[in-house]
Amino acid sequence: MARSAESVAAVVKAYDVRGVVGDQIDADFVREVGASFARLVRGGENPASRIVIGHDMRESSPELSRAFADGVTAQGLDVVHIGLASTDQLYFASGLLDAPGAMFTASHNPARYNGIKLCRAGAKPVGQETGLGTITAELVSGVPAYDGAPGTITEQDVLDDYASFVRGLVDLSTLRRLKVAVDAGNGMGGHTVPAVFDALPVDLVPLYFELDGTFPNHEANPLDPANLVDLQQLVRESGADVGLAFDGDADRCFVVDERGEPVTPSAVTALVAARELAKQPGSTIIHNLITSRVVPELVTELGGEPVRTRVGHSFIKQRMAETGAVFGGEHSAHYYFRDFWGADSGMLAALHVLAALGGQDRPLSELMSSYERYAASGELNSTVADAAARTDAVLAAFADRAESVDRLDGVTVNLPGNAWFNLRASNTEPLLRLNVEARTAEEVDSLATEILAIVRS
123: which DSSP letter? Predict the structure, then answer.
């Protein structure tokens, strides 16, 4: 059936499909997305004969994933359904089976949302330019029917294989016994963490491991400091060596040290980069432009090649493929690994942190101190009517102080003393996003206050 361009555009985003269940997304819509995706991957240079499907713990996920499978098989392709999965577990299955994949999740969004993350064989990303645009057009015009025989649906449990694979990518041979507190946020970390950690010398202190897509305890979005509070308290009370927090689909991992203090994703990126460069000297490391300057500085000091990209997983994965980079990290706690088909895995990042911590005797706060050279504001959002005009006003105010300005993604203004800030307009909301970094917290606060006063005037 044909649909309005507006209704389709509201849910088919730049990198995935996402919307409110029953209002924007239902079984009929998802069935057509499955059919169109099957048509997409059935053609081209590497035609697919099957698609692997996984889903998170949301109440709507099983029904929607079955509807998607019906759409796929109606187009003559087979389906391998792996059932409950984290997003990186789905990427693993896509790589293992060399098949395109579809993951049903809305990540950290509230319970009323659901969506689909799509990938080609080998976990290669699908975005607007690489398939979602084609799917959008077919949903508007109507997906052509297929006159051949329908495909089949089989089930395959890959959880144990996934757990063994990710453990095998990190040298855990010198890991001393650690007490590890983990907040799964009632998301898919409650499914994957026990499988991965079971074979490790780890005393697990679990929090909110019950799979519950209503998120009864807090949003499964550790990027918001409010959602780390319970884990921070648990780490302090239990005497854990480290705390880990996963988002709803467990593709992102946030770290808390033994004092209950958050470790920035940039510091984790620097740590993992150092470990990967120790294994493969001279390698390329990808970082987005919001990541702390400590990352390119450290990579250069260690003889690696830092490459800076725009924000967004499609840009990171594209540059990783182009450069052969061994690792990439984002300020949002997405971590990408060449040995994991270039896809992101919060679990792999967590294992690197445990290996680094457990391979020496210092507490995590001391271990990470060398990766925390700067103070940062985090992302500060402002609702604005005209993002371009507000950005121009900020640039005018800093014209005499700026050492340089680049426009790779929004505007990045470099200031004396290695301070910098970036202003980026949101692609989906009337927001202007500010990130500031400087040598001291006082300088960060001063700059942020000055910039926000202009942005919000």
Answer: G
Residues 128 and 169 both lie in one domain: no
Q: Which residue range forms the structural domain that includes residue 406?
A: 375-455
Residues 189 and 146 in one domain: no
**Burial zone of 119 (CB within 10 Å; 0-12 exposed, 13-18 middle, 19+ buried):** buried
Query: Rounded distance, CA 112 to CA 375, Å?
Result: 36
pLDDT in tens, 264-291: 999 999 999 999 999 999 999 999 999 9
Pairing of strands 284-288, 305-309: parallel
- Residue pair 27/60 in contact (Cβ under 8 Å)? The answer is no
What Cα–Cα distance (Å) separates residue 65 from each residue in 37, 56, 87? Answer: 13, 10, 14
296-300 CB contacts, 8 Å cutoff, 24+ apart? 297/373, 298/270, 298/273, 298/274, 298/371, 299/273
* 355 lies in some domain: no
- Write the pLDDT tens digit of every residue in 186-219: 999 999 999 999 999 999 999 999 999 999 999 9
Show which residues are catalytic. 107
For the segment 48-70, what is each residue's pLDDT rounded down to a tens digit?
A: 999 999 999 999 999 999 999 99
In whole angstroms, give the CA distance from residue 258 to residue 236.
Answer: 7
Q: pLDDT, tens digit, for every residue of 337-349?
A: 999 999 999 999 9
When pLDDT is averaged across residues 218-235 and rounded to a whole number, the result is 96
Same domain, 148 and 166: no
Distances (CA, A) of 28 to 3, 31, 70, 312, 402: 11, 5, 10, 30, 53
215 in the same domain as 283: no
Number of structural domains in the chain: 4
